[in-house]
Write a structure and sequence with these properties.
The protein is of the alpha/beta class. It has five domains: about 1-65 and about 660-690, no CATH class; about 65-180 and about 610-655, Rossmann fold; about 180-280, Immunoglobulin-like (Sandwich), CATH 2.60.40; about 285-520, 3-Layer(aba) Sandwich (Rossmann fold), CATH 3.40.50.880; about 525-595, Immunoglobulin-like. The protein is built from 13 helices and 37 strands. The strands form nine sheets. It has an eight-stranded mixed beta sheet. Strands 4-3-5-6-33 form a five-stranded parallel beta sheet, with helices on both faces. It has a five-stranded mixed beta sheet with strand order 8-14-13-10-11, with no helix packed on it. Strand 10 and strand 11 (about 230-235) form a beta hairpin. The protein is elongated, with a radius of gyration of 44 Å.
Length: about 700
């Protein structure tokens, strides 16, 4: 219980003050005039003013309110370097013991653990002040004793105006040790887009922080594009350097650059950096050579002309050069076929060559067919859309091109109605998988019939579509570095015309052409991954029965394996939790890929050296402190408000001495009746003094 004297004036304060001023003025005049009975008059006025002020004795029963302090433990990825985690946990345990000796009625502690999953900035840095503010959200500011941060000092949400935002002491206990060294790689500038096959310039920088005379020393950089090693460069430390790189394919490309380890490094995690660059194909060059006119002659031309990404060169060979034509020259509108230019000088400029119902003639010398075969083996693409001419003695199979064709024609042509079927391989291959109207294990295809098929024996590759008696219709193959497709019918135009409901001719031929031109989304053996929320989603497409387990390397270097389950024919998928920021690397057999969780180059690893510089302003503005755990754990004290909150070897958690009133009562000290009696008596004494 506490006792106190309080006042509850019967008049407003301004009136009471006015009366006091008037009384003082009156007494001053009386004093100057040496009026008799001045003492009694003074006492009378004093009693009057005291009665009007109404003093009372206040009795309160109070309950002391405990102060609240917060201990924030930094468990971000950078605190896992070296012995920092062990230091932090040891300090937290010792701090719990020290704070546990303080009665909970005086001080209550809230412990907060800040991890990458719960306390991450948008740039991928460590946020400690956000969870600190959340822990104190329900606590009045005058009850906060302070906060203790156990961290390496790499905090990326420190307030700019700490004095205004932090009305309590902030103490930082630093893990690590002063004077640490580390090498870090940053990508200073990188293009977001680039033309596939053309040289792009990337600006990088290697810094050896904490090292003496490291500027200018050569550092080796390894470059990987989409997980595959491409080149090694040597650059000087401490300065920007340019790397010339080439994107291998369209779509997203993950460019990874890794610096060689430096001496006495803290971690190798920030020796590498990555960037996503979208590859944009320049116009793909396609050479289309059409032979004898037929109903579907314009099918390929219309399809390729409609694609803005394709630069089509189309020749229709109506007659061989040795055939006489008596048409006057001025009436000729056709140009001479540039054989040498196309098949020798500019052959490698084309991304795809298409022979549409073409039969061998003396127009193209045999050695040029050999050039085409070598072009395919060296990485080119060839499509043969064949009709009945393939079964004749003058077919392309009687030329050196036969060495790259996946099937040998038997010389027979089936001319009967049939609905093309997607084979078991075709249901797994992205060129034909999921075609609208395709057959399944239980149903027949719903598209229209074709009426011609060249019989052939498949020697290699994958048969994706078949005709009557399981005769091959569409065969795809990889020849060394190149690709070949053989369509053993010229009846696809029936689908275009809508015969018997038509079929997905445009979609099929588009997929076929883009597979030949290496569209990544149409690869039959492909590994992809992306991070959605906190899950790393992995998809593996394969022509095989079951892929091996996927090896996953986390940004911090930890590895794990993932078993994939078949989600649809030829597609296997699975997921794991993605708890770390940065680049996840995946390997499945010969396939590799990468996926980014959060920023590709998180701020968390921009500098991993333990430092007091970032939190120094907050400590100074709040009256707190920064100390190294390597020097020992400071003592905890409870200084009162207004006193120093830190000193040599100790930190202070403010004692606010807040309380709640459980009950209160007031007893008047000057009853009105007593005041009246006192004033009458004093006035009588004043009258008596004046009467003398």
């Amino acid at each position: 219980m506490t006792l106190d004297i309080v006042f509850a004036p019967h008049l407003p304060l301004w009136a009471l003050v006015s009366l006091g001023v008037m009384a003082a003025a009156y007494l001053g005049i009386a004093l100057a005039a040496r009026a008799p009975g001045l003492l009694w008059r003074t006492l009378t006025l004093a009693v009057l003013l005291l009665a009007l002020a109404n003093p009372a004795l206040l009795r309160e029963e109070r309950q002391n309110l405990p102060d609240i302090a917060v201990v924030v433990l930094d468990q971000s990825q950078s605190t896992g370097i070296g012995e920092r985690t062990a230091q932090a946990l040891k300090a937290q345990t010792a701090l719990k013991q020290a704070l546990g000796a303080i009665p909970q009625s005086e001080l209550q502690i809230r412990y907060v653990t800040a991890t990458d999953a719960t306390s991450r900035t948008d740039a991928g840095g460590t946020a400690l002040f956000r969870p600190l503010a959340e822990a104190l959200a329900d606590v009045p500011p005058d009850r906060v004793a302070g906060a203790v941060l156990i961290t390496d000092g790499q905090v990326h949400d420190a307030p700019q105006d700490a004095k205004a935002q932090i009305p309590y002491p902030i103490h930082t206990l630093l893990t690590g040790k002063p004077g640490e060294r580390d090498r870090r790689l940053t990508i200073a500038q990188a293009p977001r887009y680039g033309i596939v096959g053309e040289t792009l310039t990337f600006s990088v920088r290697v810094d050896d922080s904490g090292a003496q005379d490291a500027a200018g020393a050569p550092v080796d950089l390894d470059v990987r594009i989409n997980g595959e090693f491409t080149a090694r460069h040597s650059v000087p430390a401490g300065a920007n350097a340019n790397l010339q790189l080439v994107l291998p394919h369209g779509g997203e490309n993950v460019i990874e650059i890794q610096a060689a380890p430096g001496p006495n490094e803290l971690t190798l995690l920030n020796n590498r950096a990555a960037v996503m660059t979208t590859g944009v194909r320049d116009q793909l060059k396609v050479l289309l050579i059409s032979g004898a006119p037929h109903a579907g002659e314009r099918t390929w031309r219309n399809l390729l002309k409609a694609d803005p990404g394709v630069n089509l060169v189309h020749f229709t060979i109506l007659r061989p050069r040795e055939k006489l034509d008596e048409t006057p020259t001025y009436q000729l509108s056709l140009i001479e076929f540039p054989i040498r230019e196309l098949f020798e000088e500019r052959l490698n400029d084309f991304n795809l060559i298409i022979f549409d119902r073409y039969q061998h003639s003396s127009l193209i010398p045999v050695q040029y067919y050999a050039n085409i075969a070598r072009y395919v083996e060296d990485g080119g693409a060839l499509l043969v859309a064949a009709g009945s001419e393939l079964a004749q003695p003058i077919s392309l199979y009687r030329t050196p091109i036969a060495s790259v064709l996946p099937a040998e024609p038997s010389g027979q042509v089936l001319e009967q109605g049939f609905r093309p079927q997607v084979t078991a391989d075709g249901m797994r291959h992205p060129v034909t998988a999921g075609l609208p109207g395709a057959n399944s294990a239980e149903t027949e295809p719903s598209w229209g019939r074709w009426f011609r098929l060249v019989r052939a024996a498949v020697m290699k590759g994958n048969t994706l579509m078949s005709g009557p008696q399981d005769a091959p219709l569409l065969v795809l193959d990889r020849i060394e570095k190149g690709r070949v497709a053989l369509m053993l019918s010229d009846q696809a135009w029936l689908w275009t015309r809508g015969f018997e409901g038509g079929g997905p001719q445009a979609e099929l031929l588009r997929r076929l052409a883009h597979w030949l031109m290496r569209e990544p989304d149409l690869e039959e053996e492909r590994l992809t991954a992306e991070v959605r929320g906190d899950r790393l989603m992995v998809v593996r497409r394969t022509m095989g029965d079951r892929p091996p387990e996927v090896e996953i390397t986390a940004p911090a270097g930890g590895t794990q394996t993932l078993t994939l389950n078949e989600s649809q024919q030829g597609v296997f998928s699975g997921s794991v939790q993605a708890t770390e920021m940065g680049l996840y690397r995946l390997k499945n057999g010969d396939l590799t890929t990468a996926a980014a969780a959060g920023p590709l180059n998180p701020k968390e690893f921009s500098d991993v050296r333990a430092t007091p510089e970032i939190l120094g302003p907050a400590a100074k503005a709040s009256g707190g402190s920064i100390s190294w755990l390597a020097d020992g754990l400071p003592e905890v004290r409870r200084p009162r408000t207004g006193r120093a909150m830190q000193g040599d070897g100790w930190i202070g958690l403010r004692a606010n001495e807040r309380f709640a009133v459980k009950s209160a009562s007031q007893t008047p000290l000057f009853h009105p009746a007593i005041a009246v009696i006192a004033m009458v008596g004093l006035l009588f004494m004043a009258w008596r003094a004046e009467g003398r």
